[in-house]
Hints:
It is a single chain. The chain is of the alpha/beta class. The protein is built from eleven helices and seven strands. It has two domains: 46-255, 3-Layer(aba) Sandwich (Rossmann fold), CATH 3.40.50.300; 264-313. Helix 7 links the parallel strand 6 and strand 7.
Amino acid sequence: MTRAPRLPPAARAILGGDRRALARVISQVEDRDPAAVAVSRALYPRTGKVPVIGITGPLGVGKSSLINLLVGRLRELDLTVGIVAVDPTSPYSGGSVLGDRIRFERRSDDAGVFFRSMASRGEVGGLAAATREVCRLLEAGGFNVILLETVGSGQVDLAVRDVATTSVVVLVPHLGDEVQTLKAGLFEIADVFCVNKSDLPGADHARRDLVELAGLGSGRAGWTPRVVLTSTTQPSGIAELWEAIEAHERFLDSSGGRSAEERRRLTAEIVELARERVGRQFAERLEREPELRRLLEEVVARRVDPRTAADRLVPGPAR
């Protein structure tokens, strides 16, 4: 009889609900500490079952306040919540500019909520490279739902689709022209549209515009994005927002889309990890190996173009 491989102590601690161990391993993942690799590898088979809800949209639409109320709703439903907030990176420390973000209000004694702020470290799309692994660690730690907030850099963070099972795009009234500008990107990722600050004038008009735009699109794999009005000052619409998210999660299960989307996300992750590793290896070799350094000098001197140099390093099909 084959024995199951023994879990690393940190992995066992995370599975046992040890929040300090969870926070420690998350820090190791962010710092690319090799100590985290064995833990992530051991926990991977126990992941991939809970919803990861991406909350994205332009700056200033109230994503954090919205998440704060959504967490309250989930706790009312007796669901535990892990929150990952990807913040801009400090050019000085390399850490998150907003740190632990006091704008997330939560009881310090509520073990059913775990918040982690991560620095984007310049990652395109507003997502840190370690985000996927951190979401898996939170799932292994026993959380029922994971909420992922992107940086929000004035444009929709398209990379959220490579992590989240359901993507919520948050907008506010009077974004008319911006909605038109962002339309292609919005429909590439949006499973749910949330018109926040709906207590402001123009909210109904914004909702009608989005419903019309959603109706014109073909949807993704048969799903037409839902449109929900919310307000964090009243507050209102939070239960409806969660219902729309749940509806999309149910659709993924009934349509077979969950496995297809997971395959797409994992393909993107494997390619990204392989590209990063190969790129790092070649960068080191270009500085270390005389033959490759000569090739680099040829490119610098404009005698060889970068594409030809890349073809010499990694021969591909004839073009």
